[in-house]
TrEMBL record, chain A:
GO terms for biological process: phosphocreatine biosynthetic process. Its EC number is 2.7.3.2. ATP binds at residues 127-131, 190, 235, 291-295, 319-324. Residues 124-366 form the Phosphagen kinase C-terminal domain. This is creatine kinase. Belongs to the ATP:guanido phosphotransferase family. Residues 10-97 form the Phosphagen kinase N-terminal domain. CDD domains: creatine_kinase_like. Residues 95-121 are annotated as: Disordered. It is an enzyme of class 2 (transferase). PROSITE patterns: PHOSPHAGEN_KINASE, PHOSPHAGEN_KINASE_C, PHOSPHAGEN_KINASE_N. InterPro entries: ATP-guanido_PTrfase (IPR000749), ATP-guanido_PTrfase_AS (IPR022415), ATP-guanido_PTrfase_cat (IPR022414), ATP-guanido_PTrfase_N (IPR022413), ATP-guanido_PTrfase_N_sf (IPR036802), Gln_synth/guanido_kin_cat_dom (IPR014746). It comes from Erpetoichthys calabaricus (Rope fish). It catalyses: creatine + ATP = N-phosphocreatine + ADP + H(+).
Automatic annotation (TrEMBL), chain B:
ATP binds at residues 161-165, 224, 269, 325-329, 353-358. The keyword Kinase applies. Keywords: ATP-binding, Kinase, Membrane, Mitochondrion, Mitochondrion inner membrane, Nucleotide-binding, Transferase, Transit peptide. It is a peripheral membrane protein. InterPro entries: ATP-guanido_PTrfase, ATP-guanido_PTrfase_AS, ATP-guanido_PTrfase_cat, ATP-guanido_PTrfase_N, ATP-guanido_PTrfase_N_sf, Gln_synth/guanido_kin_cat_dom. One of its GO terms (cellular component) is mitochondrial inner membrane. This is Creatine kinase S-type, mitochondrial. Its EC number is 2.7.3.2. GO terms for molecular function: ATP binding; creatine kinase activity. Residues 45-131 form the Phosphagen kinase N-terminal domain.
């Protein structure tokens, strides 16, 4: 499709007249986008017709929150990150801890490289989970894809996943064909995703044509789950109850590698490059796109004044058990890696494993009324 | 039809623009579309129209009823001069399957040319929505001579308030689903400039949404003037809320009887209202205000979007023609309980709503009664129809109060003879 206002009349209008008013905004895009940058980049578009205005619309429509820094921009295709690097490189640098345009990202999906992780204390760790995303090269991303493209992605994904066997063998549930029973089961399993309601997602166009070509695939064991055409082409999740993160990560790596080779037999590959790693819709998910975490009971530690500092030093992040933007319930936290880019998958899951072990030790100390000062880690 | 660019050359600020742009921008414009053209061809081969045809099997809206695969295939690759596509017109209807009882329109225009280039689908939707008005064969007549209206003073023991609204679009600028920030700001500039030229009882002031003080905001809420960022997915899926609240605002006269909304669902929504039952005066002010504003924009080389097929061009096909909804808040405690109430309204070609507006319920036997039709009859004819109809309803109410019987009136004709 053609970008809005690309007729002759609109090109003739001054760039300044198009410049968004970001004076009340607090997101990465608003921090980075200058008048000059806007003037320079608005003339460009990717081969599929994605423009600067398309990239930033979500950030213009959602001024943000004084405490939470959102990204404020999305990619419409793989090329976006190249054509609009003037904007996206500084956004990436800001969001990913100083990651430079010349830096290289390392991918490591060999689960044998993870040390330990099979023995997180099940009295504290209730569940373990690793997720990432993958995009299929040659197709536009969710903010920009047409219905035809989205359906092609679904078809490719379902074919690929259909070839998985062993403990990965599973079934696809298309959102628009689901029976009421299937729907209820998926809700009870906490697998079902809903039409996005967050204005951050809707404003970028990811909710278009819902629920066409959206669906959920999971293995019969319910430990490996793939979301199709939600916020990314594919979101891949490995999970299980308890603290055996090593097993979760091994299944994660095995599954991803198998899916990738199945795609290759059909002449398709994932979007990836050695600078940005795996390419996903939101710049915040570049690199590994990996969030590995646990639901862990830390009722004492979470009330301790040094909790936040410990997490920061360990490069970990806390969330409520409902996921991003939810509050903790009953002292149970979702603890996961804060980074996505600049560290490999193995490195990030290692940080989670080692970090959570330490947090549990601290919790045990506080249970006994002892100090945790000597346990405070150095900055990773 | 003159292209958008050449229309710009013929009027407004030409010399200034050309001087600053030079021929470089023209070349850039051509070059850009050349580069894109090849890529567009590749994609259309990979994804033929049939692969993009929306799944409308669970949908209940006018667009879904008429968008056949054949029409979609024919129109998918067409673009208006400003780059608007069929997919963009229908996105709101694809995203909002509708309700079994309420049939929405399911598509919007991005610009004036949408109605021409995509006429295969728009004409069918217009015909269904406007109860048989056929844009291919019929003409719409505009008449804003309020002196022609008679019996326009209602019994104020029944009629609490009177109101007439419509919309106007500024030719040459894209409509709210499609407009860029610059176009939207231009709409705001042109409209507010014209409104600042209004005098006498029409003199007033503009309140820009981004600059409103808290007191101004509260006062506008208390006056029931303030509009909010759209939350209805019918509107947000059509892209009308982009960049909110940039270039949106409210203008009203000091008497608070003439109100303009800028860049909400249309370029402008024009509302004339007052407490009580003097519909004649409300309509007189409505016509006078509209004509004054039109004159003021014409002085600067602008005009409203209008043609004799579709009348005034607005974003939603449901508002074509006059775009006019004339109505009253009227107490009808007896009549509203009579089983013949709906039939009477139907025959009078009137519509009832709750006093909160569309999709609200009536409160305390007070109804919002307004004209059903928008196109095929002029403004004068529609307002007269409302006046005659409401007078009839009040007459019925009075009879029922005295336990006298009432009659269902014969149906009034829909289109002018």
């Amino acid at each position: 499709r053609m970008p809005r206002g690309r007729g002759m009349a609109s090109l003739a209008l001054y760039s300044d007249q198009e410049l968004p008013d970001l004076s009340k905004h607090n997101n990465h895009m608003a921090k980075v986008l200058t008048r000059e940058m806007y003037a320079k980049l608005r003339e460009k578009q990717t081969t599929s017709g994605f423009t600067l205005d398309d990239i930033i619309q979500t950030g213009v429509d959602n001024p943000g929150h004084p405490f939470i820094m959102t990204v404020g921009c999305v990619a419409g295709d793989e090329e976006t990150y190249e054509v609009f690097k003037d904007l996206l490189d500084p956004v990436i640098q800001d969001r990913h801890g100083g990651y430079k345009p010349t830096d290289k990202h390392k991918t490591d999906l060999n689960p044998d490289n993870l040390k330990g992780g099979d023995d997180l204390d099940p009295n504290y760790v209730l569940s373990s989970r690793v997720r990432t995303g993958r995009s299929i090269r040659g197709f536009c991303l969710p903010p920009h894809c047409s219905r035809g493209e989205r359906r092609a992605i679904e078809k490719l994904a379902v074919e690929g996943l259909g070839a998985l066997d062993g403990d990965l063998k599973g079934k696809y549930y298309a959102l628009k064909n689901m029976t009421e029973e299937e729907q209820q089961q998926l809700i009870d399993d906490h697998f079902l995703f809903d039409k996005p309601v967050s204005p951050l997602l809707l404003a970028s166009g990811m909710g278009r044509d819902w629920p066409d070509a959206r669906g959920i695939w999971h293995n019969d064991n319910k430990t490996f789950l793939v979301w199709i055409n939600e916020e990314d082409h594919l979101r891949v999740i490995s999970m299980q109850k308890g603290g055996n993160m090593k097993e979760v990560f091994k299944r994660f790596c095995t599954g991803l590698t198998k899916i990738e080779s199945l795609f290759k037999t059909k002449g398709h590959e994932f979007m990836w490059n050695e600078h940005l790693g795996y390419i996903l819709t939101c710049p915040s998910n570049l690199g590994t796109g990996l969030r590995g975490g646990v639901h862990v009971k830390l009722p004492h530690l979470s009330k301790h004044e040094k909790f936040g500092e410990a997490l920061k030093k360990l490069r970990l992040q806390k969330r409520g058990t409902g996921g991003v933007d939810t509050a903790a319930v009953g002292g149970i936290f979702d603890i996961s890696n804060a980074d996505r880019l600049g560290f490999s998958e193995v490195e990030l899951v290692q940080m989670v494993v080692d970090g959570v072990k330490l947090l549990i030790e601290m919790e045990k100390r506080l249970e006994k009324g002892q100090s945790i000062d000597d346990l405070m880690p150095a900055q990773k | 039809m003159a292209s958008t660019f050449s229309r710009m050359l013929m009027g407004r600020r030409t010399a200034m623009l050309l001087a600053s742009l030079g021929t470089g921008a023209l070349a850039t414009g051509y070059l850009m579309s050349d580069v894109n053209h090849a890529a567009v061809i590749d994609r259309t081969k990979l994804f033929p129209p049939s692969s993009d045809y929306p799944d409308l099997r669970k949908h209940n809206n006018c667009m879904a009823s008429h968008l056949t695969p054949a029409i979609y295939c024919r129109l998918r690759d067409k673009l208006t001069p400003s780059g608007w596509s069929l997919d963009q017109c229908i996105q709101t209807g694809v995203d909002n399957p509708g309700h079994p009882f309420i049939k929405t329109v399911g598509m919007v225009a991005g610009d004036e040319e949408s109605y021409e280039i995509f006429s295969d689908i728009f004409d069918a939707v217009i015909k269904e929505r406007h109860n048989g008005y056929d844009p291919r064969t019929m003409k719409h007549h505009t008449d804003l001579d309020s002196s022609k209206v008679t019996h326009g003073q209602f019994d104020e023991r029944y009629v609490l308030s009177s109101r007439v609204r419509t919309g106007r679009s500024i030719r040459g600028l894209s409509l709210p689903p499609a407009c860029t920030r610059a176009e939207r700001r231009e709409v705001e500039r042109v409209a507010t400039m014209a409104l600042s030229g209004l005098k006498g009882d029409l003199a007033g002031r503009y309140y820009r949404l981004t600059e409103m003080t808290e007191q101004e905001q509260q006062r506008l809420i208390d006056d029931h003037f303030l509009f909010d960022k759209p939350v209805s997915p019918l509107l947000t899926c059509a892209g009308m809320a982009r960049d909110w609240p940039d270039a949106r605002g409210i203008w009203h006269n000091f008497d608070k009887t003439f109100l303009i909304w800028i860049n909400e669902e249309d370029h402008t929504r024009v509302i004339s209202m007052e407490k009580g039952g003097n519909m004649k005066r409300v309509f007189e002010r409505f016509c006078r205000g509209l004509k004054e504003v039109e004159k003021l924009i014409q002085e600067r080389g602008w005009e409203f979007m209008w043609n004799e097929r579709l009348g005034y061009i607005l974003t939603c096909p449901s508002n074509l023609g006059t775009g006019l909804r004339a109505g009253v808040h009227v107490r009808l405690p007896h009549l509203s309980k009579d089983p013949r109430f709906n039939k009477i309204l139907d025959n009078l070609r009137l519509q009832k709503r709750g006093t909160g507006g569309v999709d609200t319920a009536a409160v305390g036997d007070v109804f919002d009664i307004s004209n059903l039709d928008r196109i095929g009859r002029s403004e004068v004819e529609l307002v007269q129809l409302v006046i005659d109809g409401v007078n009839y309803l009040i007459d019925c109410e009075k009879r029922l109060e005295k336990s006298q019987d009432i009659k269902v009136p014969p149906p009034v004709s829909q289109f002018r003879k």
